[in-house]
Amino acid sequence: MRIQFEPEGFQPPRAGLILLQCLVAGLFFLFVVRFWYLQIHRGEEFARLARENRLRQERIYASRGLLRDRDGRLLAENRPAFGLALVREDCRDIPSTLAQVSEWTGIPLEQLTAKFNQDRQRVKPFEHLLLISDMPFDLLARIENRVLQWPGLEIVTRSKRNYPQGELMAHILGYVAEANEKELEDDKDLNLGDFVGKQGLELVLERRLRGQKGLHQLEVDVLGRQLNKKLVQEPVSGENIDLAIDLGLQQVAWDALEDETGCVVAMDPDTGKLLALVTKPSFDNNAFAAGLSLKEWTALRDNPRHPLQNRVIQSVYPPGSVWKLMMAGMLLNEGVNPADSVWCTGEVALGKQVFRCWKKGGHGRVDMMRSLIESCDVYYYQMSDRFGIDKIEAFAKACGFGAPTGIDLPHEKSGLVPSKQWKRRRFGEPWHRGETLNVSIGQGFTLVTPVQVAAFVSALMNGGKLLKPSLLADEDPAVRSSLPFTAAGRKMILDGMRLTVNDDRGTAKVLRRPDAVMGGKTGTAQVTKLKMVGEERVRTENLAYEHRDHAWIATWGEKAGKRLVVVVMVEHGGHGGSDAGPVARRVYDKFFGPPPGASSGVPSGAAPQAPAGQVAPTGPSSRATPAGPATSPATPGVTAPAQQTLSAPAARPVAPTRPDQAAGAPGQSGQPDQPGQLDQQDQQEEGLRIVPTGRSARPAGRDRTTGRAVEAPEVEDAREGLHRYDPDTFDPDAATPDGRGSDDGVVPPLRRFQNVAPEDGQ
Fold it and tell me: What pTM value is reported for the model?
């Protein structure tokens, strides 16, 4: 073996060593940069993340504010609720855990998985993802001992809304439910699983009731077990709010409606405070707070009596004869003398249309006061024909109709005051004179809400101030506008309402009591075309329920300085005096106390006196006028003239020369007006004719060729026609080619004039 030696002074190449040194230096430099990046540049961030692995934040839910009535009785409270939550960071096997929860609770696994997948995007891995919000106590007891065997599952305690009165207060309070996606996006203070107001005062007062969440800081070990807990921020409870509602009065109004469908409003006329607001049928708002199943929701939604509808503010109805209070004020403002009278024979004719009064045979001589007391339709037919729809529309809107009242509840409807422009826009048709007659007695297109009527009657009582109806006890009275009434006009309307209660022919006699001054106006709103058997109308009790008239009564009462306005509307109730009146009577008995001798009623001649500053009217308006055909005592059998025609709207006034003589009625001598004295326009088809008592508006005739008798020509009854509105879905502003909204429930009319005359016993 030969060994070779390097010559002395030989130097190996240095390039490899330099390269190796450069590589080592580069790696060292990279480590230094990386360490700098991690420890200095992002050191604070990573330190925070490290702390978060050890420290967690837990929200403390604030207690929602309480709701109480005017006497401090709880209407909405909070109770503890136990839920089951999942912390993803601590859960080793999420599918198995969800399957176990499904086995414990009976909730389908697909439903739990869908909820988990939906909510995981909004919840951090170390935060609670709520699977069940409220567990029954027996389920809680079964799960509590086993939950430790499933890492990531925790039982959490939260407060849950409870409504002790249930359906009695549901339409006022509304309810709370879990916030949806849109609410979470719109309100950054909300977190997944938060409960928010969905309806009623819970929705309107959400910000005041919600409060502010607090914060706990938790220290946990590597397995997620809690080691320490520190309070970081105190929660702030929501505001406790007192309502103007009198729970006792609310309960009485609820009980008085019994099984009827309808509503009751009781309002303080001087402050606008609502003491009772009842809608029947109703629903249990506790069911919404707990969460409804699809079956339960479908049953509520499809219920034909619409229990979810707040009829006081969301249902619109023809006002019927209650509308005559506003009409009488308009006539006074237009300069009509309240002593001017007309002759009511029970019906008038406009061309081929017949407009009947509710009282067959008529009321005889009727002035303004008598028209209110006995609710005569013919008086308003004739007076409205003089002034036209434009003046009625303007005056009604000035009285607060056709616009929201501003009540502290969501989704209030405006109702409808029809006009020429509205009909042209909605139906593409011109306005007809007969429709003005319909509107004059609160029928046809006219629609109001019960709360609008209550605000209007309150304004008559308080000096003409249209107040915002208020449900909050601490809210100052808010005046929206003023009635376009004079003081004398308001006084006369109130006197008319008082006499409607105390006069023997008044339609609101049910309200009489000797210890208080009471006033009222009844109304019967027709909902479908009249069912006729010959010349007789089918009685209400013989009609199918859905074809029966709505029953109204608008009332006020005063006793010992206490004043109250009560409005009752009973859907398909029949008659205002007999069906809605007893409901209002029970409300007043609760508010004023039982009347003395309640079982015997008011003795004859013992009617209470008018309030201070109100004097019963004198002259023709205060005299009891016989109903039916006018017959002179001196000349038995002499009745009103055969026919009389009123002039067109721009013609002379209806009232006769002598204020004590009605148009077309017998004079003082007992003789009727002579035919030559009648307006010549009675020969024109478009004239408004008074139909004589005892005679038909459909006269028979003879064939001119054969001379034989022929059947009476068909004359359309102005009251016939299909009901155009569903009060729960009607939208007066919907515009479609046939005048129907997509879901407003409007039925195209078969006749131009309909829904005119209420039945007797208004």
Answer: 0.72
